[in-house]
Design brief:
36% of the residues lie in helices and 20% in strands. By secondary structure, it is an alpha+beta fold. The protein folds into two domains: 248 residues, BirA Bifunctional Protein, domain 2, CATH 3.30.930; 107 residues, 3-Layer(aba) Sandwich (Rossmann fold). It has an eight-stranded mixed beta sheet. The two termini are 48 Å apart. The chain binds adenosine monophosphate. The site of adenosine monophosphate (AMP) has 18 residues, from strand 6, strand 10, strand 11 and helix 12.
């Protein structure tokens, strides 16, 4: 039987994992610059949490969630997004009691049963932030700046910020009715998906990418033109803050986002490097959500960004820095009766905080040297030969090619110096002759222990 990853999921193999580590480290650094603190929540929650917050009629809840009943009969769902879980934790642990503003960030897998395609998976990963406690547009501006700063930190400059306001409980219901009545007039020209949405979720008809829907809805009223004074002021103040910070944006009256809980600000960051799934990140304000989930009324705003899509852009733009970690020292042994000594030397090197590897195939010295080269180590320590008989080992600096006879008692300090000296210099390519240990007696010596 052959087992494979489930459709829409991916293994992150060692040669990719370092890219993830690079991404996560950069993301954390920027979150910390903006004073956000990490939160980690369980992979699954009660289904009702997501149904209640994201909205029963959204695509996520109605057709994409991984929902199952556990053995106790409780309906559970693998988290399809993080905001609901963060708010649940915020309420449960009373996080708002210790500070007027709670700034949280996360990096986590998410699960949605969507049709897999480039940039769209069933287990994908997001980083994101939530700021809870302020109703003012300056925190909206900060969250947007935070998201943009992360892409900038990677060297990604070409990101388009799309902005809209979705109104609030005061202005949206009247607009929704107006939109619905206008949509009913063009009902027959809409795609079947959009026809369903006219009664259930009419705002979503506006962000349909289907050309048929686009054509039918060109003259539809847009929420941004029907905002109450409070929402209008908020939207204008946000725009002037962004302008003052030199942040370019496009107002997109059709941007509605796929989740029900948004109020006022909604935004998306788009990359031209991504093809049809071009959203790098999306976010918005959700002033009613905490109350809706049983907490004290608490305004909030946040964003979520896809890591796989960020990786796609980094790859396309060749923006990865650094490389996968490499071992510093290879301990080669001359003959099988030296294996135990090589094992002990490697152990001591690691105890000193330096990474070390040895041969586990009882290979010839030549093969061990080739292996050391393949692993691009800085130093080879050779255990055996005449040196070993006199309480020493041969140390080869793989950058300079220099060899040193070093007393075992002084070995760690000696290696530390070489590794330190090499750490800032770029790696040279080596040639075949450097793979040999010069002047080495191949005679194997006794079994003296270190
Ligand atoms: P959303 O929570 O739907 O607003 O998504 C926020 C971001 O997460 C998107 O802009 C994408 O970058 C990413 N994302 C959402 N769904 C997926 C998916 N199925 N596969 C990969 N990335 C996704």
């Amino acid at each position: 039987m052959k087992f494979r990853t489930i459709r829409g999921t991916k293994d992150i193999l060692p040669n990719e994992a370092y890219q993830w580590q690079f991404v996560e480290a950069t993301v954390r650094r920027i979150f910390e610059q903006f004073n956000y603190r990490e939160i980690r929540t369980p992979m699954f929650e009660e289904t009702a949490l997501f149904a209640r917050s994201i909205g029963e009629l959204t695509d996520i809840v109605s057709k994409e969630m991984y929902t199952f009943t556990d053995r106790g009969g409780t309906s559970l769902t693998l988290k399809p997004e993080m905001t609901a879980s963060v708010i649940r934790a915020y309420i449960q642990h009373n996080l708002g009691s210790s500070a007027p503003l709670t700034k949280l960030f996360y990096i986590s897998p998410m699960f949605r049963q969507e049709r897999p395609q480039a940039g769209r998976l069933r287990q994908f990963h997001q980083f994101g932030a939530e700021a809870l406690g302020s109703q003012y547009p300056e925190i909206d501006a900060e969250v947007i700046l935070l998201a943009l700063s992360i892409y900038k930190a990677f060297g990604i400059e070409e990101v388009t910020l799309k902005l809209n306001s979705l109104g609030c409980e005061k202005c949206r219901p009247a607009y929704k009715m107006l939109l619905q009545s206008e949509l009913r007039k063009v009902y027959n020209d809409l795609s079947p998906d959009s026809q369903h949405r006219v009664e259930e979720n009419p705002l979503r008809v506006l962000d349909s990418k289907d050309p048929q829907d686009r054509a039918a809805t060109t003259n539809m009223p847009l929420i941004k033109d029907y905002l109450c004074t409070d929402c209008q002021t908020h939207f204008q103040e946000l725009q002037s803050l962004l302008n003052a910070s030199g942040i370019a944006f496009e107002i997109d009256g059709r941007l509605v986002r796929g989740l029900d809980y948004y109020t006022k600000t909604a935004f998306e960051l788009i990359s031209s490097h991504l093809g049809s799934q071009d959203a790098l990140a999306g976010g918005g304000r959700y002033d009613l959500l905490t109350q809706e989930l049983g907490g004290k009324p608490t305004p909030g705003i946040g964003f979520a960004a896809g890591i796989e899509r960020l990786l796609l852009v980094l790859d396309k733009q060749k923006l990865f820095r650094g490389g996968s970690p490499q071992t510093s020292v290879f301990v080669a042994s001359l003959g099988n009766d030296m294996i135990q000594n090589a094992f002990e030397i490697a152990r001591r090197i690691r105890l000193a905080g330096i990474s070390a590897e040895m041969d586990f195939h009882r290979r010839s010295l030549k093969a061990q040297m080739r292996e050391a080269d393949r692993q691009k180590v800085n130093v080879v320590v050779l255990v055996g030969g005449d040196e070993w008989a006199s309480g020493a080992v041969l140390v080869k600096d793989m950058r300079s090619g220099e060899q040193h006879n070093v007393k075992v008692a002084e070995l760690i300090e000696f290696i530390q110096q070489i590794v330190q000296a090499q750490s800032d210099k770029p790696r040279d390519s080596r040639n075949e002759s450097e793979l040999s240990i010069q002047g080495l007696s191949t005679k194997e010596h006794g079994t003296s222990k270190i």
